[in-house]
Specification:
This is Glycosyltransferase. 42% of the residues lie in helices and 15% in strands. It is an alpha/beta fold.
Length: 357
């Protein structure tokens, strides 16, 4: 009989790709519908019903595995959830994706959550050795299991995009992408944009493409940034960059966009790990990542100095020029990702069996 796992949330792409590609392995409960907790949620899993102590007290599962979705929870509520799991003898597994929440300017709220969850977990997982070392330093847990992030893009799309990239590699413009999305607090595009504009301007056949959501650049946008909007439109008018303003992209649109880039620059000043980075690697797009967090431990990237206290413009310019001159192939091929997914799925299966013993 397979292990029945309450994964929070089971519908997230990371969690979906913890299962074997051909099926089998542990069975994961579907996310309950937030409006009708007795029904599966489908694509809508927020807020996660599985985090309600009342749900955990009566649901049928063998192991409780938390990944995401606890941002808005009161720490006392999470402590109640842990108490329910203990009272029922249900093992609690916690994957520490973020040691610093990219959505929070102030780290205090996320730290309060981690102070409840990390010490209480029967097993801890994280994605990189650096994050595991930080967990040991902060909480004294030296038993964190390090398992890599599986692929984000589905494998057929990944294969097709990489094939198309190889075919047109020599004939197209060298395209450097910066995606400011809806300006998470962790993002600092204004600091790095002048360096990108100046560097890309000096590379023959190169173009800087900046994508932003309408809520940041539209005049009536909910997250309108006047200074950023003015800078981007002025530089676009001057021919220094291509500006693409749009709503949220579907997965298909996002993969097509990322696959059209040679380089994707991550504009973060704090963070831990990145699913965006993994998607770029799936699609054969070189990532230029800041030195904050543990991005460089996830996979091969070009790094530049950037965190909350400092920024090294020369290192960013060097990373862009290196990508242009050397055209490194830093992505992961399909068979590598397929093998990695098998290994990660097997490791989770073994972990669940271990905590149940």
């Amino acid at each position: 009989m397979s292990t029945l796992v309450a994964s929070v949330p089971s519908g997230h792409v990371y969690v979906r790709h913890l299962s074997p590609e051909q099926g089998g392995g542990p069975e994961r409960l579907p996310d309950p519908d937030p409006c009708r907790p007795t029904h599966p949620a489908g694509a809508v899993w927020w807020p996660p019903v599985m985090l309600d102590p009342e749900w955990a007290a009566r649901a049928d599962f063998d192991v409780f595995h938390l990944h995401f979705g606890f941002d808005a929870c009161d720490p006392d509520r999470l402590a109640d959830l842990v108490d329910v799991l203990r009272s029922r003898g249900k093992p609690f597994v916690f994957t520490v994706h973020d040691l610093r929440n990219p959505h929070h300017e102030d780290p205090g709220a996320h730290e309060a959550h981690l102070d409840v969850l990390v010490p209480a977990a029967d097993a801890l997982v994280t994605l990189t050795p650096g994050a595991a070392a930080e967990i040991e330093r902060r909480w004294g847990r030296d038993d964190t299991v390090v398992l890599p992030h599986p692929h984000v893009v589905d494998l057929p799309t990944m294969a097709g995009t990489q094939d198309r990239q190889a075919q047109r590699h020599a004939s197209r413009l060298f395209r450097v992408g910066l995606h400011v999305k809806s300006l998470r607090p962790s993002m600092d595009p204004a600091t790095i944009l002048p360096t990108l504009v100046e560097t890309v301007r000096g590379l023959p056949g190169a173009v800087l493409q900046v994508n932003a959501h309408r809520d940041v650049l539209d005049d009536d946008g909910a997250r309108r940034d006047d200074d950023l909007a003015a800078y981007l439109r002025a530089r676009a008018d001057a021919g220094d960059l291509e500006l693409h303003v749009h709503d949220f992209l579907s997965d298909e649109e996002l993969w097509r966009y990322l696959g059209s880039l040679d380089v994707s620059v991550l504009p973060y000043r704090f963070g831990t790990h990145s699913g965006w980075l993994e998607a770029c690697r799936d699609l054969g797009t070189t990532v230029v990542a800041p030195t904050c967090g543990f991005f460089a431990e996830q996979g091969p990237v070009l790094s530049y100095g950037h965190d909350e206290s400092s920024y090294d413009a020369d290192s960013l310019a060097t990373a862009i020029r290196t990508a242009y001159d050397e055209r490194p192939r830093l992505g992961a091929d399909v068979e590598e990702r397929r093998a990695q997914r098998r290994a990660v799925a097997d490791a989770h299966d073994a972990l669940y069996r271990s905590v149940l013993r």
